[in-house]
Design goal:
The complex is a heterodimer of chains A (460) and B (231).
Chain A lengths: L2 H7 L1 H10 L5 H14 L15 H14 L12 H14 L18 H4 L2 H9 L1 H6 L3 H10 L11 H13 L5 H57 L4 H7 L5 H6 L1 H24 L17 H7 L4 H4 L14 H8 L13 H12 L19 H7 L4 H5 L16 H10 L11 H7 L16 H4 L2
Helix pairs in contact in A: 5-10, 17-18
Chain B lengths: L1 H19 L14 H4 L68 H5 L9 H14 L1 H4 L8 H6 L8 H4 L3 H10 L13 H15 L14 H7 L4
Helix pairs in contact in B: 4-9, 8-9
């Protein structure tokens, strides 16, 4: 292993070796090298290179080079830059979803494929893996058993494509493991600091501001005391002296009628406001955020992962209710994702889905939004016809760890919106006549204009 | 005088704290006035309260003597209010679609099915919306298999890749319905007509192929019934 590889990849050091020829003696090697370097004007006669050039150094260098190329490839696989670049395009379009070059992914790591198998076999596997597995090829069958997935056939790839692909697989995008580790470590450190900066800055700025204010207070106090002392030393008329040395009588202020009246009024206002607020909140569940049987995070699913609301709440555009997804929808992804953030093992929360599916038992989510039975509400009318975003009523769901009732869901809240919202009439023939009838009015056509305030629209 | 003052202050403090307790938040649902108005006696599909004993207020008017909030169908498995359709029945629909009965592995039979939905600007527009809702999380907004969920799951098809570009419409429909490889079955989530619209969008916009002449025989519902295998 290794020889071809090194030779093809790094020509400069190898060139040196060729120059060294077959001179076997130690001193001879040294002398030869020195002459070569001097002839290339790289060295002055007095000092050699910084590093002592000895056979050991060269040996270490050689081993390092071999270490970089841990896999060897079939020598028939071309390693020209054009072939690698062309192969990369093929790889990105067809392979990268399941394969990585040096890591196991959904499918095996690809580098060294032509070392493990002949290039022709690899090609026929890429073209039609099903046929190769069916033919009983031991290696292919073992692969299929290990990954338990069949690769789609790639008959459309031409022989040139396949050759280029193989050169990319074997020679493309090589990563020095140490450098890669450093990069990922650096990246993680960068990400860790990246999130916290703004809030930290805010605290620091606030702290500095407070400190400055306190300092100003102290300085002002000092100035006052210095000035008072100075004035006291002067010869002053009686009036002024009294003014300078007067003391405020706080007790008197507290007992004054004005003070008592102001304080009483404030207290009464506060009590009245709290009482009214409290009374108004009777029967309003705004802010209700119950703990759910599974700690499902909308912030993770709808926020980070950008899954559309409708993916799980399937009824929202076709029916009255938005629907709570059944576990089979969870399992579309969680068959494969068993823990959060790529951790090992099964997360206890995700395990609850598995238990529900296995025992055929419903997950008993706690209902958050509970519109009284006396009012009719239909999601599809608002979302599909009205084109209202989910967040308009449900708030920033994509940021909620635990779902909270964002809106009051009172009649006043509904009516307010019906008074203000213009109807999305464009492209909806249902509204054509209504728009025509309304065309005399100066205002836009709003929900209130087509019966959005009628009692029987919602209460029947 | 002092006692009166203390009473006033104490009383108002008590009132404030009591009224503040009416407000909902966290696990507290807040105070309800006339809970009978809020809690349905009829079965609610997305509500299930199996607590039979809690009485909401002093006058309970339920005939069965159960608590105010009880809302659960004791005749259903797990006391659910929802029921699955009765076995061996076929739901009727406007389009006249019959149930899709091909098994997950019967891809070859599925591939010959034609798209019963006629393609139009509107259908493509709707297809895009549906694709973004149901597919883009894994397959990416442009179908290149680069969605954020797809990154985690791995092995998501690049719909513009050579292995997928020339797949027939019936094949795409079948894979959406039944799943394939690492993809789960989405038949329960997306109505049949919507799935066909997604197929149109994938074929014509994402894979950039003009629709194959005309899926003409889909004009009336009987033709659909012939085309859609129902055994």
């Amino acid at each position: 292993m290794g020889k071809n590889e090194v030779a093809s990849r790094l020509s400069a050091p190898v060139f040196m070796f060729e120059k060294l020829g077959s001179d076997s003696t130690f001193a001879g090697v040294k002398e030869n090298l020195k002459n070569y370097l001097i002839s290339k004007n790289m060295l002055s006669k007095r000092s050699l290179v910084g590093i002592r050039l000895s056979f050991q150094t060269l040996a270490v260098l050689l081993f390092m080079l071999i270490g970089v190329s841990a896999y060897a490839a079939d020598p028939a696989v071309a390693s020209s830059d054009e072939a690698i670049a062309a192969g990369k395009t093929v790889f990105n379009a067809n392979c990268k979803q399941c394969h990585k070059l040096d890591q196991k992914s959904v499918g095996p790591a690809l580098r060294g494929a032509t070392d493990r198998q002949s290039a022709d076999k690899v090609k026929s596997f890429i073209k039609n893996s099903t046929a190769v597995i069916a033919s009983g090829d031991a290696y292919a069958v073992a692969l299929f058993k290990e990954y338990n997935l069949q690769m789609p056939s790639h008959e459309f790839l031409s022989d040139d494509d396949l050759n280029n692909l193989l050169s990319y697989i074997e020679h493309g995008d090589k990563v020095d493991p140490a450098a890669a580790a450093a990069v990922t470590a650096g990246g993680e450190a960068g990400a860790a600091t990246g999130g916290g900066i703004p809030s930290e800055y805010l605290t620091v700025i606030l702290g500095v501001l407070v400190l400055v204010l306190v300092l100003i207070l102290v300085v002002l106090g000092l100035i006052i005391s210095v000035l008072t002392k100075y004035i006291n030393k002067q010869d002053l008329p009686e009036d002024d002296k009294e003014f300078v040395s007067q003391k405020t009588d706080y007790g008197k202020i507290f007992k004054s009628d004005g003070f008592i009246i102001v304080v009483t009024a404030l207290v009464i206002a506060l009590v009245a406001k709290t009482a009214l607020d409290g009374l108004y909140s009777v029967g309003v569940q705004q802010g209700y955020a119950p703990a759910q049987p599974i700690a499902f995070s909308h912030a993770l699913h709808a926020g980070d992962k950008e899954i559309a609301c409708q993916y799980c709440h399937t009824g929202v555009e076709i029916g009255r209710s938005a629907n709570i997804p059944s576990p089979n929808i969870c399992m579309n992804c969680h068959t494969h994702i068993q823990n959060v953030g790529g951790k090992e093992g099964v997360s206890p929360e995700i395990a609850k889905i598995y238990a529900a599916v296995e025992n055929n038992q419903p997950i008993e989510w706690v209902r958050v939004h509970n519109l009284p039975d006396l009012a009719y509400f239909n999601h599809s009318q608002h979302v599909a016809v009205g084109g209202i975003e989910c967040q308009t009523c449900h708030g920033p769901i994509q940021e909620m760890e635990v779902v909270k009732q964002h809106s009051a869901l009172t009649m006043g809240w509904c009516i307010d919106c019906h008074r203000q919202t213009e109807i999305a009439t464009e492209g909806n023939a249902y509204y054509d006549k209504l728009v025509q009838l309304h065309s005399d009015s100066k205002d836009a056509l709003k929900v209130k204009d087509i019966g959005g305030l009628e009692c029987a629209k919602c209460h029947y | 005088m002092k006692i009166a003052k203390a009473l006033i202050f104490g009383g108002s403090a008590l009132a404030i704290s009591l009224l503040a307790g009416c407000k909902a938040g966290g696990d507290n649902q807040g105070l309800e006035y006339a809970p009978q108005m809020y809690h349905s006696v009829a079965y609610e599909p997305l509500t299930q309260i199996q607590d039979e004993t809690t009485k909401g207020n002093l006058i309970s008017t339920r005939e069965d003597g159960k608590g105010e909030y009880f809302n659960s169908n004791i005749n259903n498995p797990n006391g659910m209010n929802m029921r699955e359709p009765v076995a061996n029945t076929v739901p009727r629909n406007k389009q006249g679609y019959l149930p899709y009965r091909l098994k997950a592995f019967e891809l070859e039979q599925a591939a010959v099915i034609k798209n019963p939905v006629e393609s139009s600007e509107e259908v493509l527009k709707r297809g895009e919306v549906l694709f973004l809702q149901y597919c883009s999380a894994c397959h990416g907004k442009t179908g290149q298999g680069d969605g954020k969920v797809g990154e985690v799951i791995g092995g998501v098809a690049n719909l513009t890749g050579g292995a997928y570009v020339n797949l027939p419409e019936g094949h795409i429909f079948h894979v959406i319905t039944k799943g394939k490889g690492r993809m789960g079955a989405h038949g329960s989530q997306i109505p049949e007509e919507s799935r066909w619209k997604i197929v149109h969008y994938v074929k014509q916009v994402i894979q950039g192929q003009a629709t194959a002449a005309a899926p003409a025989p889909a004009a009336d519902s009987t033709a659909v019934a012939q085309v859609t295998p129902a055994n």
